[in-house]
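Dear Dr. H.,

I hope your travels went smoothly. While you were away I took the liberty of generating a structure for the chain from your last submission, since the lab meeting agenda had it listed for discussion. I wanted you to have the full record in hand beforehand rather than looking at slides cold. The sequence, exactly as received, is reproduced here:
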Amino acid sequence: MNDDLRNPMSLFDIRGKVAIVTGASGAFGAHASKVLAAAGARLVIAAGNKAELDAVAARCRDLGAEVEAFNVRPDSEVACEEITKGATARFGGVDILVVASGKNDVAKIVDMTPARFLDVMDANVTQSWLMARAAGRQMLKQGSGKIILMSSARGLLGHPAGYTAYCASKSAIDGITRALGCEWGASGITVNAIAPTVFRSPLTAWMFADDEKAQEVRKGFLTRVPKGRLGEPADLAGPLLFLASRASDFYTGHILYADGGYTAG
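The corresponding predicted structure, in token form, is as follows:
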């Protein structure tokens, strides 16, 4: 009998794996770091907000993880190499990369300057590409690795409220995911993306409130969500562990929609 059938949960075992998480001070990055820590991974976390980064590092250590923290954003080739080399120096390699860094800037196209558009594209696209490139070099030497990028339902669907920069950036993430999935398909590296819709975070907390405006916005949004609710951070833990573990070895170039069915209808 196949050993996996004797213990199928072993497919999701990432104990001892080395995981890099960028944007670790943000909503998804912080949650991803804690989930990976609780699952037994050794962590290298990076973010520009030192106070928040230190708080996440402390929480991950409380969960039993070995943690190396870098107060840096993946906004240059040098920074991405520093993060990757830091992981190999401390832990001997890189098994998992989660790129959770990014931003949004909402404005109608006629009101948005080219500089603001390019700033979103740089934060969401260029930095993901640079980090995947740096960690991917190490993974190619190892002959294995898991790269997880952060997309969005907005990579597939438009939005009427001034999302040209954000939608374009997430569509580009989908393209990078598919292209790298093909480029590195035979190398032992998988490249996938998680694409949530609205989930609870400091930026979206107002949508979860009980005031009249929030209820009106939420009601309109939920008409498109078959599950009938907004997302919670816990809804991203399963997809993350799946894509970070052996369970997803035959999945690459895949966009996993964690959206309650939003993109299905």
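Two observations you may find useful: The beta strands are 18-22, 42-46, 67-70, 96-99, 145-150, 189-196, 254-258. The first helix runs from residue 3 to 6.

With kind regards,
E. W.
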